[in-house]
Amino acid sequence: MNHTIADAGSAPAIQLLTCNAELTTPLRALLLAQGFMLEAFETPEHLIGAHPSARALLLVDLDALPDVNTLGGLVAQVQQRDGQPVPLVCLASGSDIRARLAAMRAGARAYLQMPMEIEELTDRLFDLAGTQAVSPDRVLVVDDQPVAALFAARVLESAGMLTERVGDALAVLDALDAFVPDLVLMDLHMPGASGIELTRIIREQDRFADLPIVFLSAELDAEQQMAALRVGGDDFLAKPVAPDHLVACVEQRLARARERARRQSGPDTIDALTGLASLGRLLGRLGQLIGRGGTEAGRRALVVLDLHGDEGALMRLAVALAESCGASDLAARVGERSLAVLMRREDAASLARACDHFAEELARAGFAPGPGRAVGIGWCTLANSGGDAVTLMSRAAKAARSARKAGDGLTMGYGCGPVPVRTSDQDAVATAILTERLQLLFEPMVSLTPAPSARYEVSPRLAAPDGELLSPVAFMPIAQRSGLADRLDAWLLAKGLDAIVACRAAGRPAQLFLYQSVVGAGRDDWVGQVRDEINRRDLFRLRPVIQFQVQEAAADRVSQPIASLDWPGSASRSV
Q1: If you average pLDDT over each of 89-103, 241-255, 429-443, which comes out highest?
Q2: How many angstroms separate the CA atoms of 354 and 324, rounded?
């Protein structure tokens, strides 16, 4: 197998304090293969006495410390030696709450409980380092036809990529572990297992959740191509493919993956108070999984913990929750007094048992049901998300609030009773629109080309009386039947444009993609009203983008062409 070993002089460094030689050797090999250098130290004194280093991470095995309470002092000495903040990650073989508290107080970005598969540990370190590896992009070519596999490999190698070819479909998982690719180029029809089957298996493993998979096949049937994308494929290329088109597609997918990884590993992905993931990071992960759909949606759930307590109680709850989570669970802070866990289990029954396990562990940690310190635990599967991460969050939170109010320590699942599932209520939706019980959701959009400003997709959420946030798919048809689509459009347009003004005033210009209904756009005066709102705020140079739901446009079947907006200084653009 071909591997690129980074030049140790130029590779970013990860410093490791550990007495475990069985961990150091394989970890060093995997890190070097991906462009990182590992510097290992057996004692705190050796670490402190090392030469100053601009490291990507400081990795401390807490078993190597004489006392976990010395961690803070050790980090302070290393920071004083290097003259810069220390990005700290802790490893621990036990579940001692004192160790977790010491890690949190020392400012650790992550607390990783061992034992953990060495490949998974490496992946976590890459994410946490937030540093671009110096090795070339690695592409695993999966194709049972040697000539086709060789062609694709040679084309990608000519573009500076490192490739590995696999002709046996049943050997793909072993190749993923050994080669650690940045992207998989997958054939569709192969003996032993199809590309669709392999992709489904790959996507079931969280460590490969963000691995780009591009299909390259002679299959021309559109339904087969769509099936490949539905199970988790990122793109579909038809054979024969032009070399420049193959390279462009692969580079585009790799660029998107790098941008996504950058967003998920930056400082904004960690909540400063609890040390858990941030709300933004969790929503981003939920968005990926919900968009993928499939049978996996019934095996994943978002669990929300609603706390009645102060900030100190929230910190203790965060530590107890982290103790109870599995290695693949993602715990995050999602509100002023609420936490959440994204988890995957084998089925709905296993999800319910996992939630009950959380309740038992938290009760042992001092969060038993009772006045002033109750914790409500509610959950909702991704299959009940309504196709939207924010809606999923609100549904799990509603179940958690119901559980806390019950005060009996039992968990509640949305749609599992006794939490009522929301039904379409025309009066409630109309009242919410008229009283403007609405919120704006700003979702960042990844740009593959340099852009003068950040880009966000903006859509409304309607706050139902029970606290659930409804997506446009749920309430727009009701708004249209109630004759309130125009009012909703006007509110969204005004709030969105005001947000652009606020961003500009703060020195952070942004381009917003604003949702409007097809019904409203069909009015003769709609274009003029939109232009007036934009010009009144002097925003025409920022070029806000108006967008429509394709499903809505198809269902509405507007008989006349929708007018176009003529922006000053630009060509006419149809919307």
Answers
A1: 241-255
A2: 10
H/E stretch holding 179 reads: helix 172-179
Q: What distance in Å separates the CA atoms of residue 541 and residue 534, rounded to the nearest whole number?
A: 10
Show the tokens assigned to 296.
């996996």
C-alpha span between 62 and 94 (Å, rounded)? 10
> Left (φ > 0), alpha (ψ -120 to 50) or beta: where does 79 sit?
alpha
Contact assessment for residue 382 and residue 297, using Cβ atoms and an 8 Å cutoff: yes
β-bridge pairing 469-470 and 138-142: unpaired
Query: Could you check whether the bond before residue 240 is cis, i.e. omega within 30 degrees of 0?
Result: yes
Strand partners, 37: 13
pLDDT, tens digit, for every residue of 457-470? 777 888 777 677 77
Q: Measured between alpha carbons, how far is 307 from 317 in angstroms, rounded to an integer? A: 8
Asked if 202 and 232 touch (Cβ cutoff 8 Å), the reply is yes
Q: Which residue shows structure tokens 């089957």?
A: 197
How far is it, in rounded angstroms, from Cα 240 to Cα 359?
56
| CB contact at 8 A, 484 and 430 | yes
Task: Extract the tokens encoding 531.
Answer: 């232009």
**Cα 284 to Cα 286: distance, rounded to the nearest angstrom:** 5
Report the candidate in 149, 318, 140, 152 with the shortest Cα–Cα distance to residue 213: 140
Q: What is the biggest distance separating any 2 CA atoms in the chain, rounded to whole angstroms?
A: 78
pLDDT, the chain, mean: 78
Sign of CA dihedral 38, 39, 44, 48: negative
Q: Which of 344, 205, 330, 358 is nearest to 269 (CA)?
A: 330
Q: What angle do CA 441, 446, 452 make, to 5 degrees?
A: 95
Higher pLDDT: 270 or 135? It is: 270
pLDDT on residue 420: 54
Q: Measured at the alpha carbon of residue 110, what is the angle toward residues 100 and 340, in degrees to the nearest 5?
A: 85
Tokens 């739901």 belong to residue: 549
Beta-sheet pairing, 438-444 with 454-463: antiparallel
Displacement of CA 185 from its chain's centroid (Å): 23
**3 state SS of 38:** strand
Q: What is the pLDDT of residue 151?
A: 93
DSSP reduced 3-state for 15: strand
Asked whether 36 and 129 are in contact (CB, 8 A), the reply is yes
